[in-house]
Design brief:
There is one protein chain. This protein is mainly beta. It has helices spanning 33-42, 46-51, 66-69, and strands at residues 23-26, 53-60, 74-76, 94-101, 105-112, 117-126, 129-139. The chain is globular and about 40 Å long. The protein starts with 22 loop residues before the first strand and ends in a 6-residue tail after the last strand.
């Protein structure tokens, strides 16, 4: 089997941080330059993208059914991964927000305003550079997530 199931109510990274003074809510233009350079290349180069993901990658598939998933975890394997070549932008239909935690962890939340769906990605700075460490596809999340 290539994957396992995942929790339906993965808590936001914000709920896991003890020191609120390390959090910064930003727009893309305000992020640090090394992350923006990584982010641009991540969306242009499929080989680079695959090398910057820790597999198995924890997360949620698109349109996950909380009743079906239950308390089990879901992991993407490399053969399940779909290259993400589109950089999300603020628009009438979408909002994109970033939470920067001590310049070492960035959580990106992309919201489809019309359908009230969110996509969540988490990137961590490691000794080898920035890496995607969590991906939750477009789903409905409660306001506490």
């Amino acid at each position: 089997m290539n994957s396992c199931k995942s929790k339906s109510k993965e808590p936001s990274i914000l709920n896991r941080i003890e020191s609120p003074n390390t959090l910064t809510h930003l727009k893309y233009d305000d992020l640090q330059e090394d992350f923006k350079n990584f982010y641009q290349q991540f969306h242009k180069d499929s080989i680079f993208q695959m090398s910057c993901i820790f597999f198995p990658l924890e997360g949620l598939p698109d349109h996950a059914d909380p009743e079906f998933i239950g308390n089990e975890k879901y992991y993407f394997s490399p053969d399940q991964w779909i290259f993400q070549n589109t950089i999300p932008i603020q628009s009438e239909n979408y909002s994109v927000d970033y939470t920067n935690i001590s310049n070492m962890l960035i959580e990106e939340t992309i919201t489809d305003k019309k359908l009230d769906l969110k996509l969540i990605r988490r990137f961590a700075k490691t000794g080898g550079g920035w890496r995607l460490i969590y991906y939750a596809g477009m789903n409905k999340y409660s306001s506490t997530n």
